[in-house]
Predict the structure of PucR family transcriptional regulator.
Amino acid sequence: MITVRDVLSRPVFRTAVIAGGLDGLDRPVHWVHVGEIPNLGQYLKGYELVLTTGVGLTSLTARYRFIRGLITAGASGLVIELGQYLPQVPPDLIDLANVEHFPIIAFHNPVRFLELSQDINALLISQHHRILDDLEALSQGIRQAMLNTEGAVRLVQLLFESIARPVLYRPRDPADTPIVFGEWVEQPALPSDVALHPVQESTPHHRIRQSVMVFGEPIGDVFVANPGNPIDERVYLALDSTVAALAQDFIRVESLDRLRRREEGALLEHLLFEENPEPYLCQRFRGRYRLTPGYAYRVLAIATTTPLAPQMVRQLLPANMICAVYNQTDQTIFVVIGSAHAIEELPHLLPSPGMTPGEQPLLGISSQYNDPADMHQALSEANDAAAIARYCGRGQVSYDKMGIWRWILFTPHHHLQRLLIEPELGPLLQRRDRARLLETLDALLTHLDSKQAASHMLGIHRQTLYARIRVLEETLGPDFMAPARRTAIEAALMAHRYLTGTPAPKRQG
């Protein structure tokens, strides 16, 4: 940006003096205009440096009208050739210039306005070329950054380096971190409107803003502090180029993310749902997710009945663990990879059963595996663990901690019925009062050494409990509470409740 001060530093102005308006030397100059008519201001657009011989400034009224017209039009300053018409700058002009900070420059000797115009216009054209060179350098930097996929941070940095003013890029997603270069007195808040072109912000701190648009929607805003007053055209053009590059980079990243998710989904689909996947798929998984010797994985099956469950689990995973995700309609499947020790400790990092019931994600965790070819088995374990988590109302269940549930889920239902439930509970299940007796049996199994605690759990008198125990002895046999028989009956009771959909008692949670 060329100012009046820059113009005065030119050799052709070495004999000029500043007659008034010293505080306005930083006014920008966009062009030079020669004029003498009193209403010259009506024909100006602003930021012109006006040259005059003073022929129309001989009277107070004419001078006031002339100079006031220039100030109103936003002219940069006035250059007067003193001599035939004005031997000196009138005091009234000087006073007005000082009040309005409007520079008045005087030549006491004759000067060729053509030479002044040519010199200043050459300076302006040279400045324009420098702007174009700077913008070309910025464009080259942007192209290089895009080719090297250096991302939004590099693009904002290039803008900062090009215009040498504080720059901030604030994404519209509040979860994304703003990108800041330079010193900001106060960082701007997330805007609610859209700036399709650079606009000046009406804030205590002078800045401009332009929104980054992708397919008609704003994805972020770029702010530039102290852009100059008036705003340098170079800042406008540099900002516009950077905003366009940020939009292109966003589209590139989104496209790559979609491609990556699609490739990841296809690979996981083969490994999760094929019992004998092709060896090259296993090798690809090892390379993609760094499943090297000393590393292992677990499969997590997370029901989406709690909408934020997948995000909750992802946030709890340490940064040094790699996570591959496969989404289904009713659940999200995570394959979590890390060092063997970290994967062994993984269940302790995830939501615990002590959480608020409405916030508990229904989570099943497989055993620890090393070979991607076993992922189908790991998924089966995770699904079994998730089924028990749903049945028992627990936040999470790990397959390697399921105990007898592993055998119950693995055994076909008709075998459970024939080999376990009927031999152990058959006579009891035939009775009309079976519900009351099953409840009593469960209380006795829960409180093996305390009939008082069992009766309290049932809410009955101890003598009533003894009467029920006699009925159970008659139905199941007098040895129904002997250790070996008791274990079989407890397993049969668990299997029966699970197959009939009867809610699990609290003692199993």
